[in-house]
TrEMBL record:
It comes from Gigaspora margarita. It is found in: Nucleus. This is tRNA pseudouridine synthase. It comes from the Eukaryota. Signal peptide: none annotated. The lineage of its organism: Eukaryota, Fungi, Fungi incertae sedis, Mucoromycota, Glomeromycotina. It holds the Pfam family PseudoU_synth_1. The keyword Nucleus applies. Residues 176-205 are annotated as: Disordered. GO terms for cellular component: cytoplasm; nucleus. Belongs to the tRNA pseudouridine synthase TruA family.
């Protein structure tokens, strides 16, 4: 009996040993069977936090996680969420005053100057501001010392508009090219910035690459707006006030225009004159000085016409002046068109420049805005850069290729129009008139082609509609009986417009 009990005890001990040994080598799941939900959560949190904290496996009391012996509220740290980008700190960078030469094709825009509704009426300046903001070159268009050489009208283009503004720079604050750094509190750099500056001085000097202004902005601008070059200018440089002269060009088709008469009239613009009869007067501006100086005029045939219709001759009105009034060039061109069509004598220019003889502007239509381009703006001692020194050739090559692509698109469109125009122009009138049929309302020779008919001096005159006035850009205006400029009604005088605006302003106040 004793032997049996002894054997039984040994068997039980051996079994317990095997059970304990099996549990110690198992996956550990059995020991958590008796744990409460709160204890399991606490253990899991401790495991994720990487801390080895012993929990009581025997306790089966339902308690909150906060009362469990392994305190997880103080030791566990949640994994941080994906960090949101930090706001760009412009104060960490220096600033410099630069000028930018801008080219744009304005027929898709409502002028250069920005307006209140850029979505509905997009402007060149609006797109420039957007690109400058997106590239973090400025923080506020109203606080970047922005100036522009001119305000081109809706539809007018430019190949050399100039703007100036303060932009972000990579250069150190002690560079002679950057603007003085001013703190809002004590006009000094903060301690961290001071330490950074000291570290830069102690370290070996290294070449600092400036921000690639041209490449950066051109990536963000529409295809028909390009930055051509940039220049480093003095802090007091103003794109408008420092300009020596503006250079405009106006392209037109010769057609039946008398170029010699137009040249005679254009030469009378030279010198300093009162151009109030060659502009649009805005009472809100309260302008009382309309004297402007014309430095150069010329009307020349466009030399490179390989991409134009072979049947048309393009000419350009070339004009340079110190400054221009609102719509001045288009008004000048409108009078030149009347002279070229022999509707006015070249002396009409002298009459309109004589304020005593013509104190207020006669009513006449301006020339089209499409062919007008602000070709260039000239400054003294301004060195233009067409890219960074280390990448200049690549930058200017990309610019050329981009302009070539745009030219290719429009040249192809022009070729399609020219092809159809030439096909229609070669149509014989005689072949399209049935025997015995007369051309109603037309006095012409049916032996002509359609192009000869349209281009003839008689043109498509009908009844008393004997004059077709060219206004440029392919636009024409039919009139029954042409009235000479000297016999037309006039607009309100400058003094009258200014007084009317003052009266409206007083009523509103």
């Amino acid at each position: 009996m004793r032997m049996f009990r002894s054997s039984l005890q040994k068997f039980l001990n051996y079994r317990n040993y095997r059970i304990q040994n099996r549990m110690s080598h198992s996956n550990g799941a059995e020991k958590y069977v008796t744990w409460s939900k709160e204890e399991l959560i606490a253990k899991l949190l401790n495991y994720e936090s990487g801390q080895q904290i012993q929990c009581n496996p025997i306790s089966t009391t339902k308690t909150t996680v906060a009362s469990i012996t392994c305190d997880t509220n103080t030791n566990f740290k949640k994994k941080p969420n994906k960090k949101s980008p930090r706001p760009f700190d412009m104060s960490k960078y220096s600033k410099r005053h630069i000028a930018l030469k801008v080219a744009y094709f304005g027929w898709n825009y409502h002028g250069f100057a920005t307006n209140a509704d850029e979505q509905k009426f997009p402007t060149i300046e609006g797109h420039l501001h957007s690109a400058l903001l997106r590239s973090r070159m400025i923080s506020d268009p109203a606080e970047c010392n922005f100036s522009k050489c001119g305000r081109t009208d809706k539809g007018v283009s430019s190949l050399g508009q100039v703007i100036a503004l303060d932009v972000r720079s990579n250069l150190p604050r002690d560079s002679s090219h950057v603007l003085p750094t001013i703190s809002m509190n004590d006009n000094t750099l903060n301690k961290q910035d001071e330490q950074d500056e000291q570290d830069n001085v102690k370290s070996e000097p290294k070449q600092i690459e400036e921000i690639p202004y041209i490449e950066t902005l051109n990536r963000l601008l529409p295809d028909d707006i390009r930055i051509i070059a940039w220049a480093s200018v003095n802090p007091d440089f103003n794109a408008r006030h420092n300009c020596r002269f503006r250079h405009y060009k106006y392209f037109f088709v010769k057609g039946n225009l008398d170029i010699d008469l137009m040249r005679d009239a254009a030469n009378r613009f030279l010198g300093t004159h009162d151009f109030r009869n060659f502009c649009k007067i805005d009472g809100a501006k309260q302008i009382d000085n309309f004297e402007r100086t014309i430095l150069h005029v010329g009307i020349d045939q466009v030399r490179d016409q390989q991409n134009f219709s072979q049947t048309e001759e393009f000419y350009v009105f070339d004009l340079k002046g110190t400054a221009f009034l609102w719509h001045q060039v288009r008004c000048m061109m409108a009078i030149l068109f009347l002279v070229g069509q022999k509707l006015e004598e070249p002396s009409i220019v002298n009459d309109l420049l004589d304020i005593k003889k013509t104190p207020a502007r006669p009513i006449y239509n301006m020339a089209s805005e499409l062919p007008l381009v602000l070709y260039d703006c000239q400054y003294d001692n301004l060195k233009w850069y067409y890219g960074r020194d280390d990448n200049m050739l690549n930058t200017i090559s990309k610019l050329y290729k981009h302009i070539y692509e745009q030219w290719y698109i429009h040249a192809t469109k022009s070729l399609l129009f020219s092809t159809l125009l030439n096909d229609l122009g070669s149509i014989s009138l005689k072949k399209n008139v049935h025997p015995g049929q007369e051309l109603q309302n037309f006095t012409t020779n049916i032996e002509q082609t359609l192009k000869e008919l349209v281009s003839s001096e008689i043109g498509m005159s009908s009844g008393n509609l004997s004059n077709i006035i060219t206004s440029g850009g392919g636009k024409e205006l039919r009139v029954r009986n042409y009235v000479k400029i000297s016999n037309r009604e006039t607009c309100d005088s400058v003094e009258s417009k200014n007084e009317k605006y003052k009266g409206k302003r007083i009523k509103l106040e």
